[in-house]
Amino acid sequence: MTTHLHLTNKIGVIVDSFGIGVTEGLKKAKEVGADGVQIYAVSGEMDPDVLIGAKRRELRSLIDGLGLEISALCGDLAGHGFQDASVNPEKIEKSKRILDLALELGTNVVTTHIGIVPEDRNGPIYAAMHQACEELSRYASSLNAYFAIETGPEPAAHLKSFLDTLGTNGVSVNFDPANMVMVTGDDPVQGVHLLKDYIVHTHVKDGRRLRIVDPKQVYGYLGYEKMDHSAIADMAAGGAEADFIELPPGEGDVDFDAYFKALQDIGYQGYLTIEREVGHDPAADIAGAVRFIQRYRG
User: Fold this and answer.
1) pLDDT tens column, 182-213
2) End-to-end alpha-carbon separation of the chain, Å?
3) How confident is the model over 149-166, as pLDDT tens digits?
4) What DSSP string describes 39-54?
5) What pTM was estimated for this model as a whole?
6) Are strands 36-40 and 11-14 parallel, antiparallel or unpaired?
């Protein structure tokens, strides 16, 4: 491992990865040494329609009292992202409300999945996604905020070509190197340099591709029958039929020396947020990942 990088980026953890609810998850995040947290804000206690009024102020004061920040909210609405024009108006409205909540809680980033960007720029799915992202991008830019698309469903070059067609950079990138390694086989270092103008948040996750897989099998696609989410979780855990496996940082195929150097080279100042989606002891895994990043902080 190279330790001469002296990263200054803050370390985040996804509260939901602990699986113990928001309040206890925040305390656990502090305990493992995180500077900030990412929280799912789609349903349950964090749904913008549920977390209202005084509840928002109470959560903000709990986070402040622990000496934490929010690195981002997660606003992934599932169901093929924004590929289905018939449900997009409702999803766009919900996404805007999640961004409003984010700003009230002290962050200007909401991470999301928009669905796989199709190769065919002239088809209805591309048109639906483009229209939705154009509207979300304008809304975010008007608030000096971002919807950050997670990397992985398509190669970085194709994602960049889609983002380049939007009028503003309100739709940007949440860079996840493991998704690229596990699913598309893309090079995260090259991806960082390609997407440098769009990266506003990152995930620290590692993994290995065991065999070539169609991204539609993993992320779904409008009109494409795919496996259910539990099967994907089983796959990430490295079952017998697995196409890829998620591993603790430093144990998979993400070259973190090169990845962190690339982030440093492009001047990325944002969060390195740990995501852990598998494993029997998430708290121990996340604490280990915090220590892994701290070794790069010199």
Assistant:
1) 999 999 999 999 999 999 999 999 999 998 88
2) 12
3) 999 899 999 999 999 999
4) EE-SSGGG-TTTS-TH
5) 0.93
6) parallel
